[in-house]
Specification:
Chain A: One of its GO terms (molecular function) is 4-hydroxy-3-all-trans-polyprenylbenzoate oxygenase activity. The complex is a heterodimer of chains A (458) and B (332). Chain A has 458 residues and is α+β, with helices and mostly antiparallel strands. Helices cover 39% and strands 25% of the residues of chain A. Chain A has a single domain, classed as 3-Layer(bba) Sandwich (FAD/NAD(P)-binding domain), CATH 3.50.50.60. Chain A contains 13 helices and 20 strands. The longest helix of chain B has 22 residues. The chains are: A alpha+beta (458), B alpha/beta (332).
Chain lengths: 458, 332
């Protein structure tokens, strides 16, 4: 009889909670951008998470691409080999079928001196990284998600208005899960909430996670460039100007993508220019030497001579990027730049990934890669937790492991990018000399360059 | 050591003639009739005479239940799920015992379903307490029955698992003793788990016998417990209870600890084959457990119930312990 009494109490509890049974998910991902969709794919493909109920919430509409459009879109990302490996769990095939451009070499040089550094794999045969349009990445991931629709659900055009956090300890009568209230009034519950909702993350804000952030007084102007003549376009170019770095990333043999970070005022001026003047501005930014000061030039060439004596094989000849003839129609856009880092990536039943956790300057092309790195590691950690039968959101031990590991990887990268940005934002002679010597010295040390490339490729 | 065996022999003969056994319903052979009345004796360190007196008092117990232990855990029943509380070390022990159970069961049964590696297996968690171990096993897909004599603990366990629909179907709790369950569930389980339990029992033989009854042939028995050594006294009692307060004072009684050799011998006498014994160690600084070579303090044991019912005469031909002719006559 005792046994029967236990059963009926369980039944009662079951009835009481059955109303919300359909809406209790194991994982909800808030934000369906590149990183959020990649997270949903990655979780859906993991064998240890088979059978878990996963939901992706995206405020925008579904981004599908039956075939690639004629024109390139302006927002692109440099995808490192490490990220490509993550995406290769299915989505990379779609990307390769649509459009992507591998590049083998990168040349970075200063406007105030002759210093330059080139990165390339040994024989220029291997690809260093890939330039892929953001829309293509999202469309490929969306296509992959459709094959996982039995346990990964997606809700588009869904805006979240409120998050309600559970208490970390058990209080009777209170719901121990995270509650997500949507704009249409419905409330969903989840055991783990993953915030992938961008640099102004609502998840991060509502969870009260302190963030270190500042705005760079810079905006980035992006555009699609038509080159003057077709060329073997497999080099990425970046020049540090007085106002900020200008980068040309290959899209095809005839087109490249422009990312020009400059002051807000200059960015607005650039947008106002007519096409011809804009193209002239770009070409002169890459080609002109008017900012070279004599002292720096002399010092620079002396240093270079010394290095070439010490290490005869090092040093590279400076090449010039292809000249630009025109720009894609209606393709000039600008957006502000800033730096942000969440001091914690996790809370009880919450984790944040991608730009929600860390936002960087585009000068190193690492923003998306850091996000994909978060996706890969969080999936690994959750997979292990599930294989040990743990409650995914409550297992602080596993979430802490994710946070520690990713912060250890992300913080040095972010610090380096911020340092580079500050170092190259000034015209003061000592700084220019310092960076000239630094750049030339780094260029002369292949092992150091290999380390840098390896770190950025993860 | 030989005095204990002699005593066992003497009382074995005595018990057979004088005591009626309540376990007559059990399937197993005559050896269980006398073993539960006699065998507690092998854990006494005192000389024979004192042991005699003690034995007279103990033989009244017909169950694994020790009322003093029940009272101890009753007082702590609400604290099971406080991750920083008294049971914190048990929560972190899941990192060792869940993979131990999971991997050994997978070795035997193979992966039946991705995402639910233990699907289709019925597991009995003896002394489940607040369900600390039952829940992860349930999440891995097993059909778990958790039993504990302390009703409040069972209530806490039920409440905690009631929120998670994943666990409703798979984890069920019952406030009863192993003997009571053994009456209903003969050969019903693929695995029995008794983690941090045997050091709290009154009668190990009854326990082993009941485990043998409820397990399917070829089923697994998982035990984690504490060794009876000087080291375990220093670390398990003095350090853990009195100095560092990892567990509340009085939780463990060193007299009730059992060495892996003794446990192995006991289990083999009940038709189990001990497949693995591994040492475990708790690091109080990190709060984490790890596997180690030495079984001097904590250890985990995996035994498998032999498939055929061994005949009394056959037991000793199979066993490795051929240096104890004295025991054989117990079972004639």
């Amino acid at each position: 009889f005792k046994i029967r009494k236990e059963c009926s109490k369980q039944e009662l509890l079951r009835i009481l909670s059955s109303a919300s049974e359909n809406q209790l998910f194991d994982i909800i991902i808030s934000g369906g951008g590149m990183v959020g969709t990649a997270m949903a794919c990655s979780l859906g493909l993991d064998p240890n998470l088979a059978g878990k109920k996963i939901l992706l919430l995206e405020a925008g509409h579904k981004k599908e691409m039956d075939g690639v459009p004629e024109t390139y879109s302006t927002r692109v990302s440099s995808i490192s080999p490490g990220s490509a490996t993550l995406l290769s769990l299915g989505a990379w095939d779609h990307i390769a079928n649509m459009r992507c451009k591998p590049y083998n070499k990168m040349q970075v040089w200063d406007a105030c001196s002759d210093a330059l550094i080139t990165f390339d794999k040994d024989n220029l045969q291997d690809e260093m990284a890939y330039i892929v349009e953001n829309d293509v990445i999202v469309a490929a991931l969306t296509k992959q998600l459709q094959t996982l629709s039995d346990h990964v659900k997606v809700q588009y055009r869904t805006k979240v208005v409120k998050y309600t956090w559970p208490r970390p300890y058990h209080v009777s009568e209170s719901i121990p899960w995270v509650q997500v209230t949507l704009a249409n009034g419905k409330t969903l519950q989840t055991k783990l909430l993953i915030g992938a909702d961008g640099p102004n993350s609502m998840v991060r804000r509502e969870a009260g996670i302190p963030t270190v952030k500042w705005n760079y007084d810079q905006s980035a102007v992006v555009a699609v460039l038509h080159l003057s003549e077709p060329t073997v376009n497999n080099v990425a170019w970046q020049r540090f100007l007085q106002t900020g770095p200008i980068a040309m990333l290959p899209l095809s043999d005839t087109e490249s993508s422009l990312v020009w970070s400059t002051s807000h005022q200059h960015a607005e001026e650039l947008l106002q220019l007519n096409e011809e003047s804009f193209v002239d501005a770009i070409n002169s930014a890459f080609w002109s030497n008017e900012n070279h000061s004599e002292m720096v030039e002399t010092a620079g060439s002396l240093f270079r001579t010394t290095l070439s004596v010490l290490m005869p094989d090092s040093g590279s000849a400076r090449q010039l990027p292809p000249s630009v003839a025109g720009i894609g129609p209606k393709s000039r856009v600008m957006f502000p730049l800033g730096m942000g880092h969440a001091t914690e990536y996790i809370r009880h039943r919450v984790a944040i990934i991608g730009d929600a956790a860390h936002r960087v300057h585009p000068l190193a092309g690492q923003g998306a890669n850091l996000g994909f790195g978060d996706v890969a590691y969080l999936t690994k950690v959750l997979s292990q937790a599930a294989f040990n039968g743990k409650d995914l959101g409550k297992s602080m031990q596993h979430l802490l492991e994710f946070e520690t590991e990713r912060q250890r990887h992300n913080l040095p990268m972010m610090a380096a990018i911020d340092l580079m940005k500050r170092l190259y934002s000034t015209n003061a002679a000592p700084m220019v000399l310092l960076r000239t010597f630094g750049l030339q010295a780094t260029n002369a040390l292949p092992p150091l360059k290999e380390q840098i490339m390896a770190y950025a490729s993860k | 050591m030989y005095s204990k065996k002699l005593a066992r022999l003497a009382f074995g003969l005595l018990a057979e003639s004088t005591f009626k056994c309540p376990l007559t319903r059990s399937v197993s052979s005559v050896r269980t009739l006398c073993s539960w009345t006699v065998c507690l004796h092998h854990r006494q360190k005192n000389p024979l005479s004192e042991g005699l007196t003690r034995l007279n008092v103990r033989t009244v117990s017909q169950t694994t239940l020790d009322p003093a232990e029940v009272r101890k855990f009753q007082a702590m029943a609400s604290k099971w799920w406080d991750l920083q509380g008294e049971f914190a070390a048990l929560h972190s022990m899941n990192d060792l015992r869940v993979p131990f159970i999971r991997d050994n069961l997978l070795n035997v049964h193979g992966i039946l379903q991705l995402g639910k590696p233990l699907a289709g297996l019925r597991i009995l968690d003896v002394g489940c307490g607040g369900g600390v171990l039952s829940e992860p096993l349930g999440r891995l897909g097993a059909d778990v029955r958790g039993i504990d004599p302390v009703e409040d603990s069972v209530r806490t366990a039920e409440l905690h698992s009631s929120y998670d629909p994943d666990l409703w179907e798979r984890v069920r709790y019952q406030a009863c003793t192993l003997e009571e369950l053994a009456e209903e569930e003969l050969e019903g389980f693929h695995a029995v788990v008794a983690s941090e339990v045997v050091e709290h029992l009154a009668d190990l033989d009854a326990f082993a016998s009941c485990c043998q009854q409820v397990l399917k042939p070829g089923g697994s028995l998982f035990i984690t417990t504490i060794n009876k050594t000087n080291l375990s006294y220093v670390f398990g009692i003095v350090a853990a209870e009195q100095l560092l307060r990892i567990v509340p004072s009085g939780t463990h009684d060193w007299e009730k600890f059992i060495s892996p050799e003794d446990l192995e011998r006991l289990l083999e006498s009940f038709g189990f084959y001990v497949e693995a014994i591994r040492g475990m160690m708790y690091n109080p600084l990190t709060g984490a457990w790890s596997w180690q070579q030495s079984t001097a303090i904590n250890y985990a044991l995996h035994a498998i119930k032999r498939k055929e019912e061994p005949q009394p005469g056959q037991v000793w031909a199979e066993s490795e312990n051929l240096d104890e002719p004295g025991r054989a006559t117990n079972y004639s």
